[in-house]
Structures are given as structure tokens and as C-alpha cells.
Amino acid sequence: MNTAATHSTTVPLRDPAQVMRLARLGSLHQSRLSFMRILTRRIAREGWTFDRPVFDIDAKGVGHAVLSTHTPDRTYSLVAFAHDLPADMRSDRVIAEAWDCTFTLFDGVPTPDDIARLSKNIPLQEAGRVTGSELSVSRANRSVRLWEHVVSSLAKGQQPDPEKIDAVGYLMRTTAVYGSGKLGAADREMIADRAEFATPFQVEMLSVFLTRAFVRDLVQHMANQRAAGDGKTAAKLDPEIARSMGIGNSTGLGMAPFLLNHPVLFNNWVAARETAIARVRSVETASADEVAVFRDVFDRSLHSVGHWHSEHPIQVKKLAALKADLDALENHITTADLSADYPWNRLYTWAETHLGVDAQECLASLILEPYGALVDDLADHMAADNTPTFRIAGAMTLGKLSEILQDAYGWAVTTDWKQPDNKARAWYVSEEKLEPRLGERFEEPIEDYEQPLAPGLDAATLNQALAHWPKETSVAEFLLRHPEYRHIVRRAQIVGRAPYAEIRDNTISKDVLPIDMLRCKLAFFGAVHFDPRSDRWVRICMYGNAPFPEEIQSRDADLWVYPDGKEV
Amino acid sequence: MSHSLNEIEAMSKRAARGAGLSWGLAEEAAKGTRWLAGYGYPGPDLLADLLELNDRLPAIDFSPTSLDGLWRAPAGRMSPLIAGAAMSDCAVRMLDGQAITIAEVSQPLLIVPFASGAALRLGQPVAVEWNDVCLTTDGKQLCVQGAKEGVLTTHTSEVRCSAPAQMMAPTKPVMRANVTDACWDRLGAFAHRTYAPATEASRLLGAGAGLNDND
């Protein structure tokens, strides 16, 4: 399933029953194996170059621009359309129909004909169509709080207020970045054999990386235009301030089912990170340099957590616990002997008994930092080709299937599903915008439309259904009588081979927090500063403190995610 | 209109579910439809035809009564999706030289993607034959012998699946497909049945509006 997972380590990989709980998945932190950092490392390593062949935007901020990047073999271009959006039409919700800016990542350099075609489709987003030449479709809205402040400050010849910058962290936030064939775009199979897209979501990460550069250019352009209107010259945005800002992102429920709908892919992400953690915990002795790298990123990550804001009660509580735990960890590290044998395993084991899951996962990511040479190869094992694993192994006996159910879904088999609280929710797709939603099973007329996103309940039902069948009967015979179990039998067989494929928790209980699934996925992207806005949508910041395209060779293209504490 | 294969799979899955198939079969129908479309065959049209033919009828009526001997469906016509899935489940039998023979099959081409999955699992090409038609796949490529009309027949009296088979003049899949608006609408009508009608409550609660999103 994941060949990297077979690499032997002294310390074993963590038990899926421990890792795959929602509370822990919802407390994951970015790491060396996050998709943004994998991309920026590659850009620097391969010496990608950048240019901006078109920037045709008027004083009102309407027009288009093209930002291109040249890899050793190919060119990719972000085609950006800027709009003059009335304030009352600005919404991050997926049901919005207009945005401040809309984008596509084009495979190559677009011709004027391409631009003309795209200009009729990209601004419409879901209502438009694209072709196999387009790799992604996305849009972004201004942060109302920050955009006007930055434009007006610069237009007056001043720099924006660092406190205001820090309070928001970005000038625009994307509200959807579609790839993999959405709206007619290129399927992943069309580009999966390109080295730069071997890791998942690299198209989307590249699109956002270029979007951030465009947004910086656009805010400067708007300030210049406004100043010129007053017969003045605008200030140039301080590069340090510009760099401190990332691109925001609002992610809603639509993304939550992704982890359930792509079990092999999800397994490979988690298995890569778990393998990396096990490899580092198996390191016998740490050099002084390695310890120094760890201490440095630890201090910088304390600084980053200090800039993490949220008003949501759940996150406020989590943040307080994380900060307290990181203080305790800081005290422990001051006295801990990192020159003893298995220092990282000792440290992690201490954290498991003294700290909450949020800080445990933060530490688990941080100990990877000194060991790029040991773990970065795992980035090449995070993609998945579902084709070979999709078919059910019909020759398996029901006895073997039952063993998998007891092992991987033990929690579900022992759950009392007659208790309404244990299945209070149901996932469904609404007629409007065809987006996944989560409803109240016993209060709304949605059960008939339920999506198969409750593997725990499905597994428990299957376990009951096969209880009276002979153990030696084949899965093929059973499924001939019970085709309704094909979905969960397939999942169970996948998790039998790919132990991190399944969330081992209840996805339909009255207490389920979809933001846990969102954070898990976004942490793999490399996001920081998760800011839930309800139990089912979250804001994040991407590429904050990252070098801009023209800086990527001259600045740190990897550890940028940890601000050094001196900036801004 | 040119569609991505992902779009075809997503639409087919919803359509198959809307026509009454279990989620598991709907997923397999969708992968199969995508697979055929990737080889330039009108998978979405064939699926729409089949869903209309067996719309909301009990799956058991079009399923093999037994996996021994010649597979027959009680209703006298076999669903290629159910039989294809069962054939894939029983793939190891074919390695022992035991062919799987299926009687009275609707839209037999819809069985072939399941042979692709079986071939990947077996590591051996699988052949699917009916009348003067033989399609062979190793899971990555497809060989077609026989006239297009025969390949696209709506019904055949007998389909024979066997392995290992010889791959002659194989073709690789293409990555785009054209689906007519009419076909898309037919599938869309089935898919529509899987969508919960929107209510103001679901708009607010279901997507979790929460705090102001325009700041």
C-alpha cells in the first residue's frame, strides 16, 4: 500500500487506534511533509523562475494578469481576473456567485485566445467550464478589515499598521480551490506522471503560492492608482510586512468528506507522517546541530502560536491548553538531556504522558525538522492510485473479514447504535450547489438522502449481518445476497491493508466536530492558525512568512513557516 | 461537451444511486463508466440506458441466482453491473482455467471494466466475449476485436469471461471524454433524486453559517 511504511524502525509506528481518533486528527500540525513546504523546497531545489508577462488592471481594480513559473521542463501560469465587487455580494460561502478575484492555473503559457475563453468562464466559477489545459479553478475575496487599510495607508505614503496586519494575517482569502477535473479541468491522471505533481495537491498549492504574489502586486497597484489620483506617490509596501502576510482560506463542510471518500490516499498521508515520526524516534543519538535546529524551530513555533487568534469557544479552549502545554514542554526541554540515547523518543514519550494531544502532535511534527535527509523522501509516497485497491477481494472468507472488523472498527462494533445520540447526524447533499451538508437525522427529512460517510455504523451493521454465516463462506457469496454491503466491505478490505485509511471514530454522533476533519486535511496542506468560525467551517492562513517567488532562492524555502520572532 | 473523467465518475455515481443501486454498486458503476469513457466508449450513454431499463427495480431480480455453473438472473435479464461485480469478486476462479459464463446480459460492455479490475488483481489479462466480440484487458490497456455495433449491443444471450488471455493490438486510455448534453441530462435526472431539497434551515444549519464571513 505504502512501500515507505515497510522501512524498519526501532520504534514502531503509532497504533492506528491511537492516531485515527478525531480529537487527535483535529489537533494535527503542519510538518516537513506538508504539501506547501514540499512545493517550496522543490521550487528552490530545482531553481524555478517566475515572471509576470501580463498585468492589465485598471484604476478600479478590474482586469487580468498572468503570473508564470518555469520549472526545468514546463511552464505553468496563474491567470488572475480582478473584479470590482460590490460589498453586499462578498461572501465566503460556497453559495456565493461573485468574488473579488478569480483564478485558474493554466498548463503552459495562455494565448490571447485562451485568455478570451477563460475570461468568459473563470469569473463564473462553478457556472463556467474549463478544459484539460486548466489545472485548477479558484477565487478569493478581500479581507475587508485589512485591504482598505493597506491601500489607504500606502496611498498616503505610509506603511500599514503592523498590529492590524497581525490581527488578520492576509489581504485575501480563497474560498475554494478546485482541481482534479472539477468543472472540466484536467484530471489528475493527465499530470500525475510529472515529478512536480507526484505529491498530492501540488497544483492547488502552486496556484495559491502564485495567488499570494498577485495579491501583493494588486494591493500595491491599487494604492499607486489612488495616490496618482491625488497627484501623489504611494509608499512601496515594506517587503517584511508583505512577507508576513499569507493567503487566507475559508474551508467549509464540502471538504470534510474528502478524507472519508479517499481512504487509500488518506492512509498514505498519515502513514508517511507516522513513518517519519517513527524514524526520528528511532534516532539513537542527536548531534549538537540537530538539537540546535530543534530548539530553534521550537522557539519559533512558540512565537507562531502566540500569533494564533480565534474567537471560537472550542478553539479558545484548545489554544489555552496548547499554550500551557508548550510552556510545560519548554520547561522540560530546558532541563531534558537531548544528548542521551534515543532523545526524540524520550521527549515524545514524556509528551504522551504529560501533555494533551494538540501539543503532542505539535512536538511530533517539530522533531522531524532536523531530519530532512531522513524523512523527506516520504513525500514521494503520499499519492495514491486507487485502481488496484478498489476491487473487492471476493475470495476472502467472512472469518477474515470479521477479524478486520473487530480490529479496525472495534470501537464501532461495541457502540450502541440504538442510542439516538450516537447517530444524531446524517451527511447529505443539498439540491443547492450540490455541496455536502450535515443535518439532524431525527429532526430533518434527510435520512433518505444520506451519504455513505458513517463507516462505523456501516461496519457495525455488517458485523451483525454476517454473524450467522459460516466463517469459511467467501465474501463473494455473501455479497451476492447482500450487495448493500459492498461499500463497507471494500472499505474494510482497504483498511485491512492500509491501517491508517479509516477515521476510527464516530462521524455522525451528536458531538462530531467537522472542523476536526477540516483541520486534519488543512494541516497536511501546511496551514497554520486554524480559526474555526463554527463547528463546521474554519479559516486558516497559507504561506504566511513564506518567501515570494523572486525571493525563494535568497531566503529559507523550507522553515519559513516558523517566523523568527523579529519580523513584524 | 468535453468532460473530465472525474466529472463523469461523480455524475455516474450519483445517477446509479438515484436509480436505486446500493452505494457500493453505484461506486463500481461509476468507476466502470469512467473507465469506458476513458477508452472513447459511450459509457455514460450505456449507463443511462441500463438505469432507465431497471429503474428502481429490485437488484436481486437481475442478479445471478447462484455463482455455480451458468449465471442466470431470475428476471431473465442480467444486470452487467451486478454480474460484473460478482465476476470481479470471483476473479481467482478464472486463473484455474474456469471461465465465468453469464446468460442474457443487458449492455454487456458495462461488464468489461470489471474485467479490468479483475485483471489488475490477478496480474493477468482477462477476456470478455460475446457473439463476434472479444475485449481483452490487463487493467491498463484494452484490446478490441469485433465490430462497433456488436460491442455496443444492448443485449446478448451469453457473455464469457476468462483468464489468462492474450493482449493483441492494445490501446491506451485517453484522458478526456465527450458526453452529449442529452445524456448528461438523463444521468442528471437520476442524480437529482439523491439531493435533499434545500430548506432555509438547512442553508443556515447544514453548512454551519456561524460568524460573519465578510470581514
Explain how this protein is built.
The complex is a heterodimer of chains A (568) and B (215). Chain A is an alpha+beta fold and 568 residues long. Chain A has a domain at 387-497. Helices cover 42% and strands 14% of the residues of chain A. Chain A contains 23 helices and 11 strands. Chain A has helices at 16-19, 22-25, 35-46, 112-119, 144-155, 162-168, 188-191, 202-229, 239-244, 258-261, 263-281, 288-306, 313-335, 343-354, 357-366, 372-375, 387-390, 398-408, 410-413, 455-465, 475-481, 486-497, 514-525, and strands at 49-57, 63-70, 75-82, 101-107, 134-142, 170-178, 246-251, 425-430, 436-440, 528-532, 538-542. In chain A, helix 3 (35-46) packs across helix 8 (202-229) and helix 12 (288-306) runs antiparallel to helix 13 (313-335). Chain B is an alpha+beta fold and 215 residues long. Chain B has helices at 5-18, 23-38, 43-53, 80-89, 91-95, 112-122, 148-151, 181-192, 200-206, and strands at residues 2-4, 100-106, 126-130, 133-137, 142-145, 155-162, 176-178, 195-196. In chain B, a hairpin with a 4-residue loop joins strand 4 (133-137) and strand 5. In chain B, helix 3 packs across helix 8. Chain B is globular. The chains are: A alpha+beta (568), B alpha+beta (215). Strand 8 of chain A pairs parallel with strand 8 of chain B. Chain B: This is DUF3726 domain-containing protein.
